[in-house]
Design goal:
By secondary structure, the chain is an alpha+beta fold. The protein contains 4 helices and 8 strands. Helices cover 31% and strands 40% of the residues. This is VOC family protein.
């Protein structure tokens, strides 16, 4: 199992209002943007921006980070073997499979296994940025 990317979560009321300053800060456009249930999300740089009504955002606020992995099943096996537990069962979103898990020490994290097309697009973008001598 490998971690492909980790996102810090930013909770906002309005996604469109928050993106201009983040574009300037990270020097890039969002890697992805989509709606899920009644919230909107955008991944830009190392931020996952989560927007929507406070009561809807609260449904997802128990996780401290979003971690993109290449094998969700391996994550579950490793976490449970180390005393962790799945707190929100696996489900799907436009980006792939995800679940929430609590580690033995108490931290709760959202783990996502992206669809292959998204892995290719975002990791190619990350590799290009790392090679840039701008």
């Amino acid at each position: 199992m490998a971690i492909l990317k980790t996102y810090a979560r930013l909770w906002v009321d309005d996604l469109d209002a928050s993106l201009p300053s983040l574009r300037a800060l990270v020097g890039a456009e969002p890697d992805l943007r989509f709606a899920f249930d009644s919230i909107e999300l955008a991944a830009i740089g190392d931020f996952l921006v989560i927007a929507g009504p406070p009561e809807e955002r609260a449904r997802y606020a128990h996780a401290s980070a979003t971690v993109i992995v290449d094998d969700l099943d391996a994550v579950v096996a490793g976490l449970t073997a180390a005393g962790g537990e799945v707190t929100t069962p696996e489900a799907t979103s436009p980006t792939g499979r995800f679940l929430y898990a609590r580690h033995a020490g108490g931290a709760e994290v959202e783990y996502v296994e992206w669809v292959p097309e998204l892995v290719d697009r975002v990791t190619d973008s990350l590799r290009s940025a790392a090679l840039c001598t701008c």
